[in-house]
Amino acid sequence: MSFSPLIDELVVAFKCLPGVGAKSAQRMAFSLLERNREGGLKLSQALHNAMEHISNCEQCRTFTESKLCGICSNPSRIDNGDICVVESPQDVIAIEQTLQFKGTYFVLMGHLSPIDGMGPAEIGLDVFQQRLTQDAVKEVILATNPTVEGEATAHYISQMCKKQNIKTTRIAHGVPVGGELEYIDGNTLTHAFTGRRDF
Amino acid sequence: MSFSPLIDELVVAFKCLPGVGAKSAQRMAFSLLERNREGGLKLSQALHNAMEHISNCEQCRTFTESKLCGICSNPSRIDNGDICVVESPQDVIAIEQTLQFKGTYFVLMGHLSPIDGMGPAEIGLDVFQQRLTQDAVKEVILATNPTVEGEATAHYISQMCKKQNIKTTRIAHGVPVGGELEYIDGNTLTHAFTGRRDF
Ligand SMILES: [Zn+2]
Ligand SMILES: [Zn+2]
Question: Which of B68, B112, B165, B176 is the most exposed place for a label (fewest CB within 10 A)?
Answer without folding.
Answer: B165
